[in-house]
Amino acid sequence: MNYYDVDWLIAMNKINLIELIDKKAADKNKIAIYFYDEMISYGELLKKSRSVSSYLIKKGLKKGDVVAIDMMNRPEVLQIIFGTWLAGAVVTPINTQLKEREILYQIEDSNSKIIFYEDKFEERVENALKNGKNILSIKFTGNGNYLEKDNLYSEVFNNFADTELPEQSEDLFIIYTSGTTGSPKGAVLTSWNVFTEAIQLRQVVGIEETDRTMIILPLFHVNNLMFSIVTMMGNGSIIILRWFDIAEFFTNIKKYGGTIFSGVPTIYKLLIDSYSHFNIKDLETVKVAICGAAPMPEMWIKDFERIYNIPVIEGYGLTEGTVASTINPRFGKRKVGSIGIPFPGQTVAIFDEHNNELSVNEIGEIAIRGPNIMKGYLNKERETNETLKNGWLHTGDLGYMDHDGYFYIVDRKKDMIIRGGENIYPKEIENLLSGMPGIKEVAVVGKKDEKYGEEVVAFAVKSDESLSEQQIIDYCKENIAWFKCPKKIYFIDELPKNAVGKIQKFQLKKLL
What we know:
Elements: H1 17-24, E1 31-35, E2 38-41, H2 42-58, E3 66-70, H3 75-86, E4 90-93, H4 100-110, E5 112-118, H5 122-130, E6 136-140, E7 142-143, E8 146-147, H6 151-157, E9 171-176, E10 186-190, H7 191-205, E11 212-215, H8 222-233, E12 237-240, H9 246-256, E13 260-263, H10 265-274, E14 288-291, H11 298-308, E15 312-316, E16 326-327, E17 341-342, E18 347-351, E19 364-369, E20 376-377, H12 381-387, E21 388-389, E22 392-401, E23 407-412, E24 417-419, E25 422-424, H13 426-434, E26 439-449, E27 453-462, H14 469-479, E28 488-491, H15 505-509
Parallel strand pairs: 1-12, 3-4, 3-5, 5-6, 11-12, 11-13, 13-14, 14-15, 27-28
Antiparallel strand pairs: 1-2, 7-8, 9-10, 10-20, 15-16, 16-17, 18-19, 19-22, 21-22, 22-23, 24-25, 26-27
Helix pairs in contact: 2-3, 4-5, 7-8, 10-11
C-alpha cells in the first residue's frame, strides 16, 4: 500500500482534510461510524458536516473564528468538527470534566464565538457563560446514549444548504493542556500538523481501509481524535463508545469486528484484572493494540499479551506534537519497555540542560522536531519560546536512546526526585512495585525533607488487603538501591487521574 498517495502539490499547508476524506470514500454507502445500534455512512457523515457548515455560516461565523465543543463521545462531535473546518473556522474541544471557572477560561482565552454542548453539562456551561462574554450556545437534549432528533438537531445537522464555503483556516485545533501548573495552554495545531501526523500514524500503525478502529478515549483528547481522523482518511470505519465501559467494549468489538484500539495503561490493567468475567474470543478480530498517554509497566504489557494474544505497541507523544512521535514498530523489532523509534519524518534527540545533544545511553530531556510540531501556544509567547527552541519541541520528559536508536522514558523532568544529591526516577520504582503481588496501582512522588531535600514516598492501591507497608518497603530493599526505597507507603482507595487516565501526581502531593 502506498501511504503517500495524496497529491502533495495541494499539501503545502492548505490541506483540506474533508476533501481528502470525501475523495477517499469512493463508496459513499460504506459505513464510516458505528455508534451502538446506529450506523452512519460516509455520504451521511459528509452531508451532515456540510449542514453544520451551512448553519455556522448563517450564524455569522467567519474564517478563523473558534467553535468550542463540550460533548461526550458521539458521531455529532466529528460532524461538528468537520463542519467547522468547512466553514473556515477552528475547533477547541473542552474537557468534559472541567469546572465552570475552567470552561470560562478556555472560552475567553480562545475567543470562542460558539459553543456546542449536551444538556447533561447545561448547568456548568451556562453558569460559566453568565460570568463571561456573550457567545452563542447551542444545547442538544439527550436521551440515554443518544441525542434526541429535536428541532434544533434538525436545524444543525439536517438542513443542508449550498452555501459558498470560505477557504479553510490554516489552524484546525486549539487543544488545551491539562494545566497542572499555572494556567492551561492552548496548543495551536495547523492543517499541516494534522495531515502530516495522520500520514505518519497511518504508516507506522498500518491502518487499512478494511480496519475498524475502536474509539474508547475522549474525543477532546488528541489520541482517539487523531485515530478517528486517520482511519477515515484511509476510508476505514470507526466504532465509537460514549466512554470506556468494559462490557460495552467487549460487546461492540464482537458486534462490529473491531481491529485496532488505542488505550491508556489503566484500561489495559482493567482488561487484565477482568478477563475472567468476559469471553476472550470476543476480541479475536483485534490485530493490534496501542498504548499511549502514559508509560505502561512492562509486567502489564506481558500479562495483557499472554491473556489476550494481542500485541501491544507502546508509543509516545504530546498534544504539542499532534499526538505521537515514537512507536515500537508494528512490523519491525519491538522492545518492550521502550517507546520505540521516531515516526518517519520526525527527529527525536536527547538534550542536556544547556541544549547540547547527548550521546547513546545518556539521560537528558527528550526533544522532537518535525512537521507535526504545533504552531505555538495561543496568546502565550513566553511559554511558546520556552518550549520551542531552534525548531525543537522540548517535552519536559527525561529519557535516553540505546545503541539501536530506541528511546526510553525515565521520568517527567518535574517528577524527578533529588535526594541528597542523588537523582531518583519514580518510574523505576513504580515499574518494580507494579509487579509486586497485592498491589493494584502505585505512584511514587517526592516529599520535602529538611535533611535530604526530598524523600521518596509511595501511594498504593491494594488488591490484597493483608499487604502491609513493611512488606512493600522490604520488597524494594531486596530489588533496588536503598536510597531509592520509599520511606513511607500511603494506602489509598484510588489514585487521582485525569479524563484520559493519567495519574495526577500534583494531587497526591497535596495529601502530604
